[in-house]
């Protein structure tokens, strides 16, 4: 494929101004929504082959959220594209002030392997809604889903409007060398840094959705059963291969026994007595990641789980006890079904540890005490927070989702995706009926009295 030609064709398509037509954007998103509904079995089969996802998990975490993004965008896009009036200061009287959203142009979306359908199509919906053209680069680690994404885009769009560029690392490298008007990347920190540096050469704006070690702080001011249930669900969803999965639990020693009992109960309820045989337990994406996770389990105090299935690349939901900050499990994001327990005594200790490391993408606090919530929200920096739950904030269209510092740049979801792929232009529209003389040279003392009266 000639990526440079595809890119130039999209530039030409964008220059026709066709994408400025809101009805064209709406029709495209409607086609995407209808295609997904008509091909749900194909999407589910692809996700099962690539990640071992059950049909239920595929719908709940990928297909359903993508459909919801389509529905929400179609419902609101006509409001989003309207100019928005803002207040005009008194010294600008006989003027009108407003903002207008303008598309960037040709955009690049690089999606990851862990949620390969959702994280390719949701940003695409947003950039199309904003009036852009787009090239989508899905992950080569999930070839079956990549093929489905390509089929969807090829069916629903003119190639000048949207195109799917399948392939490996060489395709990504070629794409980031092209002068896109915006780059949206979801993936690891190392690749994110490389894309950021490349984008800086042409001053291309970026959104980087990365990751990090997202903590869950468990306090004694919460029913332990519901806390354990929600932590187990959020951690072992997609076999822990979720950028916002709880990466470790900060827990008091006195609470461990109760937590372990409930955790064991809910692991069995969710995945059965033999989790490696459960259709609800996804597989690890490839042998390299499987071996990395398996090595992390060496010489650990395993309380629950630890079993592995090399043939099917599965690791049972695992909880590890007495993990200190020098443990290999605490060196980088785990991105797998291993949950370390880290002890703390006072909430201030938990805050100190979190703040002494890279800012996490998500933070989870389990407490019904407003003191704890206020303390964490005031003193810790993180992408997003969920109080008394895990991962569910990602599925809330009215909240922006994104990281800060090492966990990412920018945010999206709902209207925020539309805004991410738009430049918000400011317009001051002045009347010619009156022209105030005091702003013009020479700035005499009398004129300065007027200026100081307005600007103070």
UniProtKB/TrEMBL annotation:
This is Aldehyde dehydrogenase. It comes from Catenibacterium faecis. Keywords: Oxidoreductase. It holds the Pfam family Aldedh. The keyword Magnesium does not apply. PROSITE patterns: ALDEHYDE_DEHYDR_CYS, ALDEHYDE_DEHYDR_GLU. InterPro entries: Ald_DH/histidinol_DH (IPR016161), Ald_DH_C (IPR016163), Ald_DH_CS_CYS (IPR016160), Ald_DH_CS_GLU (IPR029510), Ald_DH_N (IPR016162), Aldehyde_DH_dom (IPR015590), Aldehyde_DH_NAD(P) (IPR012394). Residues 3-427 form the Aldehyde dehydrogenase domain. Belongs to the aldehyde dehydrogenase family. The keyword Amino-acid biosynthesis does not apply. The active site is at residue 209.
């Amino acid at each position: 494929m000639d990526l440079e030609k595809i890119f130039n064709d999209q530039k030409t398509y964008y220059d026709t101004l066709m994408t400025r037509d809101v009805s064209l954007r709406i029709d495209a998103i409607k086609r995407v929504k209808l295609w997904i509904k008509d091909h749900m079995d194909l999407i589910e089969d692809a996700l099962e082959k690539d990640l071992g996802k059950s049909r239920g998990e595929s719908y709940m975490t990928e297909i359903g959220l993508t459909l919801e993004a389509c529905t929400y965008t179609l419902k609101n896009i006509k409001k989003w594209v309207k100019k928005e009036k803002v207040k005009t200061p008194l010294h600008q009287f006989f003027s009108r002030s407003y903002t207008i959203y303008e598309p960037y142009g040709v955009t690049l979306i690089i999606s990851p392997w862990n949620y390969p359908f959702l994280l390719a199509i949701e940003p695409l919906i947003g950039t199309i809604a904003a009036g852009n053209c787009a090239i989508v680069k899905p992950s080569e680690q999930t070839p079956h889903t990549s093929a489905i994404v390509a089929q969807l885009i090829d069916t629903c769009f003119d190639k000048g409007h949207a195109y799917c560029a399948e392939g490996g690392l060489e395709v990504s490298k070629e794409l980031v060398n092209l002068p896109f008007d915006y780059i949206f990347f979801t993936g690891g920190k190392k690749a994110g840094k490389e894309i950021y540096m490349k984008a800086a050469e042409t001053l291309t704006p970026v959104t980087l959705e990365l990751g990090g070690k997202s903590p869950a702080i468990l306090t004694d001011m919460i029913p332990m059963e519901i806390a354990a249930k929600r932590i187990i669900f959020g951690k072992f969803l997609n076999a822990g291969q979720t950028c916002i999965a709880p990466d470790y639990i900060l827990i008091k020693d006195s609470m461990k026994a109760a937590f372990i009992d409930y955790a064991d109960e809910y692991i069995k309820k969710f995945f059965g007595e033999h989790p490696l045989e459960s259709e609800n337990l996804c597989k690890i994406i490839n042998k390299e990641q499987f071996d990395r996770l398996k090595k992390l389990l060496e010489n650990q105090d395993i309380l629950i789980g630890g079993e592995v299935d090399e043939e099917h690349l599965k690791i049972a939901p695992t909880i590890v006890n007495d993990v200190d900050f020098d443990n290999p499990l605490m060196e980088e994001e785990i991105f797998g079904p291993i949950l370390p327990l880290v002890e703390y005594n006072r909430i201030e200790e938990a805050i100190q540890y979190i703040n002494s490391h890279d800012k996490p993408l998500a933070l989870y606090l389990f407490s019904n005490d407003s003191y704890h919530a206020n303390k964490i929200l005031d003193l810790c920096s993180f992408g997003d927070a969920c109080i008394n739950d895990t991962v569910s904030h990602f599925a809330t269209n009215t909240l922006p989702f994104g990281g800060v510092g090492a966990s990412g740049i920018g945010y999206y979801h709902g209207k925020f995706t539309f805004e991410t792929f738009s430049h918000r232009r400011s317009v001051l529209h002045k009347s010619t009926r009156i022209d105030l003389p005091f702003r013009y040279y020479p700035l005499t003392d009398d004129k300065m009295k007027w200026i100081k009266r307005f600007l103070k």
